[in-house]
Amino acid sequence: MNKTILITGLIIGLLAVLLGAFGAHGLKRVIGPDELNTFETGIKYQMYHALFLILLSMLPDVANGTKNIVFYLVVVGLILFSGSIYFLATNALTSFDFKKIGFITPIGGTLLIAAWGYLVFSVLTKK
After folding, report:
1. Pfam families, from UniProt (predicted)?
2. Which DSSP symbol is given to 26?
3. Rounded Cα distance, 7 and 12, in Å
4. pTM for the whole thing?
């Protein structure tokens, strides 16, 4: 599972760089500064959590079961959090109103917080 976590972290990081370049060069001309700032927030959280997964894959004293739970919380949390932020930031470019599904952003954020919290709890309670 460590290899899966590592590869996923690397891919998520790669996608964050690609989306960052797309935002800086492609979206800059078609969305406003507030929307671009929102888009960049999604990228920041995506990159932070890519690095988190890479680090998680290398932690020797964390049980595999804990790593699995944290891994899935981060992946689903990122899809909901950063994914919804990307859609909300580019809402004006589509005919679908992504504000209707904006409620999933805090659900994703809660899952990201849960991942960190679960890891902290696991480390604190390990004997």
Report:
1. DUF423
2. I
3. 9
4. 0.90
